[in-house]
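> forwarded from #structure-qc
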């Protein structure tokens, strides 16, 4: 079926999504979402935001997210529904978000501050956030002020490039952090349907779940999260491994793309399993379990070695090294609905009230949580050893949900991958429901706790 760009503009549900992102953009302009008592460093933004005074700015935020989620659900591909043009739909939804402050998360301000620190010749792994002066320090979340970051070096150099290119302007440098995310989303829009075709899967369904989902729209485009380039590089590695099933592609080019993904966000390293297994997926499906694990195992070991070599080379070439390893424990500081982290903190409170050590309990609970995650990943590895892309898709979701922190911007990677694997009807509805529920929950959480009263 031929889909014209106008088909998206004729859909009332697509326009509902546009109204939703307008509402999110409007509510996010309110000065309370800035960590500076003076509001955003742009008078027009504060003026727009104050046209929706408390609590209406928060109502706009939540209502807008709900409208976008409903819109996304209502345009899902079915046998009877007229499809919409994905690129036109995504552009329409993204348009209201492009020049407003970061939505639902202040992390883009941190990126700008990191870029500023680098532009002064200092190393952000050694100089804490908001401590190097500059135009962004007043707007950094106090939770992170004074701390280093666990971001890999390519992300930091990209932050520096954006800040330098925009003249370190207090507002527009932060807004410009969306440019790498937009380029990454554009790459996803190209790669996801092509990968789906190579796998013999419906393109429309893959794009709907993997690229049009509200978590991507709000957190990759609206909040400019640096997970977006990682996802794009990871998908590029998968496409290369599928498109050119040669020794060079499987053991050199694709692993180097994984190295790039890791240099944006370390989680991208999980892609090595897909890169190793996809060229021999048909063979894996025929082999008994022991031989299948051996074949997938040694290929993954080779791909991992190449990817790690590339990652080390990028880290050294960046001039920043591996200082991010010192800050990995910070990931769990933010309050998130990560199940194991919530159980750990709840247990620590009870243990402390009984006379025990709060910190000691958290340390032990953290180690137990790591063991649980590793056991789940091992089960996924065996269960999906004949389907390497499914292994990475479900494994990435397990890491997101069972890690120290569960942020909504962790999930678009998993959704992009899950859009590229066969799902049962029950799995589809669990995934769809989780995406919508978590998206709405995050909006409510932001409305209740993020703003400054």
């Amino acid at each position: 079926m031929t889909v014209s760009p106008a088909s998206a503009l004729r859909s009332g549900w697509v326009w509902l999504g546009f109204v939703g992102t307008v509402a999110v953009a409007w509510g996010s302009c309110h000065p309370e979402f800035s960590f500076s008592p003076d509001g955003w460093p742009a008078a027009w933004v504060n003026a727009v935001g104050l046209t929706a005074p408390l609590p209406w700015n928060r109502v706009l935020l939540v209502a807008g997210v709900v409208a976008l989620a409903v819109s996304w659900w209502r345009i899902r591909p079915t046998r009877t529904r007229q499809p919409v043009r994905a690129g036109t739909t995504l552009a329409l939804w993204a348009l209201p978000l492009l020049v407003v402050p970061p939505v639902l998360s202040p992390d883009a301000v941190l990126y700008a501050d990191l870029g500023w620190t680098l532009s002064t010749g200092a190393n952000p792994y050694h100089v804490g956030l908001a401590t190097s002066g500059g135009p962004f320090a007043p707007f950094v979340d106090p939770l992170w002020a004074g701390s280093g970051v666990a971001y890999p070096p390519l992300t930091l150099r990209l932050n520096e490039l954006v800040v330098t290119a925009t003249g370190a302007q207090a507002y527009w440098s932060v807004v410009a952090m969306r440019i790498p995310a937009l380029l990454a989303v554009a790459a996803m829009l190209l790669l996801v349907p092509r990968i789906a075709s190579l796998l013999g899967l419906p393109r429309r369904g893959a794009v709907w779940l993997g690229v049009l989902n509200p978590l991507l729209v709000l957190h990759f485009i609206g909040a400019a999260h640096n997970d977006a380039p990682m996802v794009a590089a990871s998908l590029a590695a998968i496409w290369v491994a599928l498109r050119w099933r040669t020794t060079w592609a499987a053991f050199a080019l694709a692993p180097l793309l994984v190295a790039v993904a890791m240099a944006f966000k370390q989680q991208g390293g999980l892609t090595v399993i897909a890169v190793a297994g996809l060229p021999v997926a048909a063979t894996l499906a025929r082999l008994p379990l022991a031989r299948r694990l051996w074949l997938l195992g040694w290929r993954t070991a080779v791909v991992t070695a190449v990817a790690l070599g590339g990652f080390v080379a990028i880290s050294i070439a960046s001039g920043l090294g591996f200082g991010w390893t010192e800050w990995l424990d910070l990931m769990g500081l933010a309050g998130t609905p990560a199940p194991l982290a919530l159980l750990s903190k709840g247990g620590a409170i009870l243990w402390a009230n009984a006379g025990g050590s709060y910190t000691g309990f958290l340390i032990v609970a953290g180690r137990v949580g790591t063991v649980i995650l590793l056991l789940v990943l091992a089960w996924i590895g065996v269960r999906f050893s004949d389907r390497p892309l499914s292994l990475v898709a479900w494994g990435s979701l397990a890491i997101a949900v069972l890690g120290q922190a569960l942020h909504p911007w962790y999930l678009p990677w998993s959704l992009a991958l899950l859009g590229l694997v066969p799902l049962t009807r029950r799995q589809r509805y669990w995934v769809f429901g989780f995406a919508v529920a978590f998206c709405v929950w995050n909006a409510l959480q932001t409305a209740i706790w993020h703003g400054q009263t």
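QC bot note: The chain has 21 helices and no strands. The longest helix spans residues 289-318.
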